[in-house]
Amino acid sequence: MGEIIQEFSARRRLRTKFNMPGTLETTPAAINDDKLKFARQANRRISIIRPPAFSLRNLRGDLVKLAQYRDLLFTLSIHRIKVRYKQSVLGIFWAILQPLSMMLVFTFIFSLIARMPSEGAPYAIFAYTALLPWNYFSSAVANATNSLVSHSQFVTKVYFPREILPITYVVSALFDFIVAATLLVGLMVYYHVRPTVNAFYVVPIMLILTCFALAMSFLLSATQVRIRDVGVAVPLLLQLWMFATPVIYPLAAVPARLRSIYMLNPMVGVIENFRQVILRGAAPDLRSLTMSAVVSLILLVAAYSYFKRVEATMADVI
Amino acid sequence: MIDLAFDHVSKKYRIYREAAETNGGPAALRKVKRLFSGWQDFWALRDVSFEVERGEALGIIGQNGAGKSTILKLLYNITTPSQGEIRINGRLAALIEVASGFHPELTGRENVYLNGALLGMKRREISAKLDSIVDFAGVAAFIDTPVKRYSSGMYLRLGFAIAAHLDPDILLLDEVLAVGDADFQAKCIARINQLRNGGTTIVFVSHNLSAVESLCDRVFLLRQGEIYKSGSARQVISEYEKMLTTITASAPSRLTAGSGSPEAEIVRVSLLNSEGVKTTMFPAGDPVRVEVEYLAHTALQDVAIEVYFYSVFGNLHSHFSTSTNGARLDLEPGPGAIEFFCPELGLEVAAFNVEACVKHRASAFGEHIDHRQVAVMNIGKGKPIHGLFHLAHTWKRKEGS
Q1: Which pTM was predicted?
Q2: Does any CB of chain B come closer than 8 Å to the CB of residue A24?
Q3: In chain B, what are the domain boundaries?
Q4: ipTM entry
Q5: Torsion A56-A57-A61-A67 (CA) sign
Q6: What is the assigned CATH class of domain B264-380?
Q7: Shortest Cα distance from A180 to chain B (angstroms)?
Q8: In this complex, how many residue pairs, one in chain A and one in chain B, have their CB atoms less than 8 Å apart?
């Protein structure tokens, strides 16, 4: 992969730059040829460090830089996954254990103690189909929130795009998801649930879920740096959130008058559609799916920009 | 060709102060006051601009708190400037805190990959250089054990070996040379010189003035966040010393403070070189004048004024004394000064702590009227002087068989 030449054009920069209010910015530099000469003389990579400001050009630059560091992302993700299970005896089975144990507990409570409608399917698989993606989201966000603070020695000593840290936790949670999905396959076999071609919708659904998880991770980890309450509040928030999502109960059980407010929860669309395509084998509700997709994408862009903004002075306050 | 440019860069830190004393008022009000702790803006760098050419070695010196580490952090993109712009042309690497990325549970080999990736090397590159790295560090036998079992020396060596195999266009150096044993330091310096000869641009921040002088072409002096002086190494370093020698005698030394108020005090000690310029940097073997200014509160009979030269390890290497030539010294009340002259300074290349004292001639070593730690004297390259003792000697060619 060749060196990237960032053509330094002062004119273009002035035209498309749009600053958030309150940014400390330089007075626009005089447009002179020396700068262009500086850029063209070398065929080495040129980086320019300046006070943070939001612009689409900067966003593109950040993504390019992230791509340059993909080796580090890969190495850290592998390292994260390995370290989780390195000195443990059960090793990789811990990935299955969490959703499995939750499923067993909920099955026990809602099949034997209090009856919970599960739309015809056995409660165990009904719950597990939703617990699986929920667990992925929940563990990704919970771990990623503290990622920057727990790696403060990296943040203050070495440079790399900091978003790599929360991303590695999301990747590690994805790995756990894949491992735990094997149990889902086992349950489907056991309960004679036949997957249909609609099961392939799992891929875009998981993609949307990953975008949303990344967005939440960026937002929370960046805020955690300065406001440490976030790290304490997130586990509680996630617990409550789970009860506001149709994980252990079906969406149909929500009374109609509350449903419009209920649907504001972006996780509702994702979880319900996941269950729809796997368990019931039906096509997903495309309206709610596209809405979730749009919301997740917008949130991702916004959260990423916020993260990059905070990243600039992260090392000063961490 | 410019490799590095700082363009009117300023850096502001916001210091939050916890409202410490909020006396008075009811307890509840005090608690509320404490929530709204005040803050203060501190400008670590103010409007700093400079450019570094390709292949140049730049040194940055200054007192603690002048802003040197801030410049390094900005260059390494660990933080961003509050104002201004920094342009970097090429791949930048830093030999700062070399073993910071190590994870104790992973083996040496895995840590090489991790640290290498953190420093920006591609996986293929690391695999290719792995053997060389392990060889350089000398940890081949332990490369597959978790690094939590390594000694601190091995830790450092491995960290440095990884960083040394970076092939950067621009290199940032901090006081990494200050840690580690002499062997390690020699390796560091060798590698840095190698990079220098290969045309790498270097930015070196240090307190070790002789290292700065030997390595850097251009130096600038930072003072309270601004560039005070910029120029050739020799010029700026002597300017820095002039700045430092205006510091008068510091607090009483770690040795005995004496009983009660001293009858005489040492006010200032100045070190002057052969041209009569106040400095703390002397080439080995050069003549030196030491001027000791004192203030006597009463008349003192038969005293001695001495100047000690301690190595950084606390060993006394030499001393000047008014009692060596047997002359008697009496002090009148009031200020005065004594000047020592040494035609050939027999201290080797190192840093020495200079201390001065006034004592009764008859009293034992360690008992004094007043004793002050004065300055740090740097002996640089000059005449070849080695060893703890320099014995003045002459030589001639022997005639005959």
Answers
A1: 0.70
A2: yes
A3: 52-242, 264-380
A4: 0.70
A5: positive
A6: mainly beta
A7: 26
A8: 109
Burial per residue of A281-304, b for 16 or more beta-carbon CB atoms within 10 angstroms, e otherwise? eeebeeebbeebbebbeebbeebb
Show the tokens assigned to B64: 């603690």
Query: Per the CB < 8 Å rule, is A158 touching B87?
Result: no
Hey, how many other C-beta atoms are within 10 angstroms of the C-beta on B362? Answer: 10
CB contact at 8 A, B152 and B102: no
**Which pair of tokens denotes residue B355?**
């201390």
Question: Apex CA A7: angle with CA A5 and CA A12, to 5°?
Answer: 155
Record: contact B117-A76, CB cut-off 8 A: yes
What gap in Å lies between CA B359 and CA A121, rounded to an integer?
98
In tens, the pLDDT along B70-103 reads 898 898 888 889 888 999 888 888 877 766 778 7
Interface test with B, best of A72, A151, A154 (most B CBs within 10 A): A72
Q: Give per-residue pLDDT as tens, A5-20.
A: 343 333 334 333 333 3
CATH superfamily for domain B52-242: P-loop containing nucleotide triphosphate hydrolases (3.40.50.300)
Q: What is the residue type of B173?
A: L
Instruction: For residue B44, give the chain A residue with the closest CA.
Output: A316
Minimal-distance CA residue of chain B relative to A68: B120
Kindly state the average pLDDT of the residues A176-197: 89
Tell whether A76 lies on the interface with B, counting CB pairs under 8 A: yes
Strand partners, B107: B146
Going by C-alpha positions, the residue among A115, A114, A113, A106 that lies closest to residue A134 is A106
Task: Note whether A46 contacts B87, CB cutoff 8 Å.
Answer: yes
